[in-house]
Amino acid sequence: MIIGLDVGGTHTDVVLLGQEGLVRQVKVPTNPSDLFATVLTGLEKITEGIDPSRISRAVLSTTLATNRIVQGHIPEVGMIVSTGPGMDPELFRTGPHYHIVAGAIDHRGREITPIDEGRVIKVADSLKKNGIRYVGVVSKFSVRNPAHEIAIGGLIGDRFEKVFMGHRISGNLNFPRRIATTFLNASVYPIHKDFFEAVVNSLAKKGLNVPIRILKPDGGNMRFDASIDHPAQTILSGPAASVMGSVAFAPKDEECLVLDIGGTTTDMAVLVNGVPLLDPMGIGIGEHQTLIRSLDTVSIGVGGDSAVRVVNGRIHIGPDRLGMAMAYGGPVPTPTDAIFLLGIGEGGDPEKAHEGIQTVADALGTDLHDAANRIFEQACQTILDEAESMVERINAKPVYTVHELWEGHRLQPRQILVLGGPAPWFARGLERLSESRVTVVPRWEVANAIGAGLARTTCEVTFFADTERQIATAPEENFSMVIPSTYTKEDAIEATIDLLRRKAIARGANSEHLELEVIEAMSFNMVRGFTTTGRNIRVTAQVKPGLIHGYDPIAEKIVDSSFT
Fold first, then answer.
1. Cβ atoms of residues 36 and 195 within 8 Å
2. CA distance readout (Å), 312 to 183, 230, 316, 361
3. Average pLDDT, integer, range 111-140
4. Closest Cα to residue 237, out of 252, 254, 256, 222?
5. Rounded CA separation 546/243 (Å)
6. 1.20.58, 3.30.420, 3.30.750, 2.40.128: which CATH number matches 250-440?
7. Do 78-188 and 2-70+191-240 have the same topology in CATH?
8. What pLDDT, in 10s, does the model give residues 504-520?
């Protein structure tokens, strides 16, 4: 059996999956001030009366790191950045504790200027004096040669609780994004460490000695203990769970828009023949543009519990959520209250919903039914308009799925898959206002947790070879080797696949069902004068994001049970 757990802003959803389908589902309120107690409550309820030996793994998704970044509730961290040819590192300052030190590596990985050890130690002493406990270290072109980052880390490591080095986060070149990603790793580390320890202890108290995984923003998962060294990989795992929760039930022969409508936000994405789109550059969150692989998703501040106001005679919905719907004791009217009054959905105290929507009607100078209808339609239309904008943005550039590049392809989704707590209610309005077929995903209320539970382990490896220097490296994997001058692209591909296979298994992948693929393989001749002196080779390979082997019977039984 598999536990899937999704910590949302309003509720935490937990499911227990087995060959018989969805064995059990639990929904508990999320307590932002005691998230760990929330997780423990969900685990206790989902495992009640279940033999722990029957549970093979637990997969979590969480918005904890994301929320802290967006709200600006992250600790101050230090950054030490070494200079190099090209862009001035000062342009990418992350905060007051950002220090530039001498030392340069060129694009081939050759040292131009050694690091200034004295300056590094002075910076470390200053950071320590200012109470900094976590530090990021980035050297330009460290993916070609991480020697400077390793040297700086060695000089300062015993002064701080945790030091993150830029070459370990991604094999892709992009100096500004590497700085931002390393900064976020250092920033969310203490938050994620507390979460990690609480979850591990909670499972131990329940006698659940099972592999724990956490969902990544690319729709795959990684071993929970590996996430301690890559805490920023938990950013946007919530929207990824939405996408994977729809993949299990999506048609494999058409394009679909996915809408996960929650209490606070609506997360949206697109599937092409059942395969999600990938943002090839990496996550953008707030002002930070990163190298973290991510599914192409958009989140907007419109949900069932969004605050409804009337400003200058016009309805405004969200982006804030001030509590639950008034029907459930909340302080302000929401789309959920309007839905109850329209008879589309039911629940809570109808008199409280009436009271809330009446204030909107009075402000608009209209009757109760018209006010409720206008709120509901505006919420639905806002979601559809934002989805259309997302599709237009994607169509303005090459379309990447998690498997391949669709050069010149234009998306035209004609089906909408809806999930999330209020999905059946919103589906009626979305279908009336759009030209698309609207389908509610089976077990829509816990589909995120199902998606987390069924996601496979993913990772990627980027490999470089320089036949003139006779060296091959994969700095992100802490790997280097001496190669002959006759080394070929085919040799590099073989070495990359071998590294990828070992990395995937170490991160918890099923060794018998690995889907590995090369997504980039390039070789360039290096010429001096009129003579070829060697080749520069770059290969990137990945485990295809998707669902675990053998998920089909589980999904089929979930579909069947959702109609009984």
1. yes
2. 42, 47, 10, 13
3. 92
4. 222
5. 10
6. 3.30.420
7. no
8. 888 878 888 888 888 88
